[in-house]
Each structure stands twice: as C-alpha cells, then as structure tokens.
Specification:
Blueprint: H1 2-9, E1 19-27, E2 31-39, E3 46-47, E4 76-81, E5 87-89
Antiparallel strand pairs: 1-2, 2-3, 2-4, 4-5
C-alpha cells in the first residue's frame, strides 16, 4: 500500500535511488558469478547499470534513476556450473 501511494505522489521525472541487491549469472556460459544488481524503485525491473555504465531512466516505466552515489562491489566467481543447476567451488577444483 505504501509503495502504491509513493508511486502516485512522486512523479517519474524526479530521480530516485535504485533498489540494490545481489544476483548470480553464468559468466562465459559456465562460471557462476555473484554480482550486485540494481532494480527500478517504481516497477522493480532490472536496470542494466554497473560501475562503467549508469542508466538515467528505467526502460520499462520511464522512472528517472540516480545511480551517482552507488558504491559498486566487485564480482565474485563462485564456481563452475554443473548440469544439475549447482556449481563446483573454484577452491576445491583440482587441475
């Protein structure tokens, strides 16, 4: 309820801070990597932002986003992806 009221009171042209979180993805198709993610504060859509690129607007709802004070974290490689959806930790891998 509070989010709906906030979305009605604050216009899209006023810049808002993104919602920060973490997600995993497969880097190079097989290395499971943990990275910081940014979501739109109005619609929750994933914003393609990072330390080298900060978007100004959400491409789904048009909300203006201010990523200027976001402290970006480095990506962490968790391990190598397996077929069953899990991953093999990099530390324990014997080459």
């Amino acid at each position: 309820m509070l989010k709906q009221v906030t979305n009605l009171l604050i216009p899209k042209a006023v810049p808002r801070k993104p919602v920060l979180g973490h997600k995993t993805y497969k880097k190079f198709g097989f290395v499971v990597t943990l990275c910081q993610s940014c979501d739109c504060p109005r619609c929750g859509h994933y914003l393609s932002a990072g330390p080298n690129h900060q978007c100004r607007y959400c491409d789904q709802c048009g909300q203006r986003v201010d990523c200027s004070n976001v402290k970006w974290e480095e990506e962490i490689e968790l391990g190598y992806a397996r077929e069953d959806g899990t991953y093999e930790p990099i530390k324990d891998r014997v080459v």
